[in-house]
Amino acid sequence: MSVGTGPDLTLVQLTDTHLLPEGALMHDVVDTAANLVAALEMIERSDLPVAALLLTGDLADNGAPSAYRRLREAVEPAALRLGAKVIYTLGNHDERGAFRAEVLGEEPSTADYNTVTMVGGLRVVSLDSSEPGQHDGHLSGEQLDWLADVLAHPAPSGTVLVCHHPPLPSPVPTVHLLRLRGAERLAGVVAGSDVRLVVTGHAHHAGCGALGGVPVWVGPALAYGVAAVPPKGRLRAGADAAFSRIDVFGEQVVATAVPLSRAEGVYDVAAAERVRLVREVVGAW
């Protein structure tokens, strides 16, 4: 790649959109639909040649069918204008049946939603790390076997693997409790494969790490952001919306957080109490 040339391929990650029915605000503060529209407008106003939009889970906040209709009505026309593919991944706030009916136009089903999409020579594999009734991440043995079968045949430009839950620790104690369980099993599948990047969301803060020798990107949320360095004894979130661009430059893949807004606070609570509540839900690891 010569100096000044652009990427070979660009993906845009929009994660944790948390859409609600019309008129509802998340935590009585955030208009999540407005954030999604603003991000799409920002992308369209740029000269960014987007090959695909990655919507990486928690598409809706409470699984409401009308929220999924709002999602489709915002994303699909924008993707058409951009000439971009749309790749959906489900998160712990999503409802599989409503998603399939309202976004895909399919019969409702509670089955995992795992997909393979070719974006030029790049393969994007989406794994459903959600499990109904749970907020931490889970991948079944069947899913990992399926992934291993897919990765057994390398793609021309390699693979980007997408799932909602990060397979990494988090400095935020509640996010740490709600990460992907059994990440070492996924590490065993991706190690030595053609996976070039694992892309996740869920944490509501940007981060990076590695799994099985493969870089992992934790994209910032479009709904709101969680403070990684809050005041002592507090857990704090603000209406800091952001998304990510993921650029392929030859042999390198680069992820960049793109801030959208900074606004009023979403919550500011005692850390010990919030961790206690989360432990009651998921149990101690």
Instruction: Give the overall shape.
Output: globular
Major sheet details: 6 strands, mixed
Strand content: 25-35%
Q: Give me the count of strands.
A: 14
Category by helix and strand content = alpha/beta
Short précis:
Helix content is 27%, strand content 27%.
Quick tags:
285 residues; alpha/beta; 14 strands; 6-stranded mixed β-sheet; 27% strand
Explain this structure to me?
With 285 residues, this protein is α/β, with parallel strands linked by helices. The protein is built from 7 helices and 14 strands. Strands 4-5-6-7-9-8 form a 6-stranded mixed beta sheet. Strands 3-2-1-12-13 form a 5-stranded mixed beta sheet, with helices on one face. Strands 10-11-14 form a 3-stranded antiparallel beta sheet. Helix 2 packs across helix 3.
List the topology elements:
Layout: E1 9-14, H1 32-45, E2 50-56, H2 65-82, E3 85-89, H3 96-104, E4 115-119, E5 122-126, H4 141-151, E6 159-162, H5 173-177, H6 183-190, E7 195-200, E8 207-211, E9 214-218, E10 225-226, E11 234-238, E12 242-249, E13 252-259, E14 265-270, H7 271-282
Parallel strand pairs: 1-2, 2-3, 5-6, 6-7, 7-9
Antiparallel strand pairs: 1-12, 4-5, 8-9, 10-11, 11-14, 12-13
